[in-house]
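FIELD: query
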Amino acid sequence: QVQLVESGGGLVQAGGSLRLSCAASGSSFSINFMGWYRQAPGKQRELVAVIASGGSTNYADSVKGRFTISLDNAKNTVYLQMSSLKPEDTAVYYCKAIVRYSGSVLTYWGKGTVVTLSS
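FIELD: result
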């Protein structure tokens, strides 16, 4: 089993910055991809950014140039540096990991961390 624990959410003013972290723990697993998704009130969960273990990244158009995803393979931790935050970035941010574990490829989700923007 793999557990994901997110941290770093909070209340921030528009234009400000936050860094989210998500640490994956467990035994005998390897990371294929890790990423961040978000779900705003009344909306569907959407991709924010993903990163492969090799470092390739993909971002939603709405966050390109403002958010940066990074992965510390040694710590099995993914980060999301968010800058120039906008009110529409308000959402619950979820960490997702696709890992190889016991010969299978499995997907895990964190419980989410809330990011709230004040204008």
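FIELD: remark
The chain has a mean pLDDT of 95.
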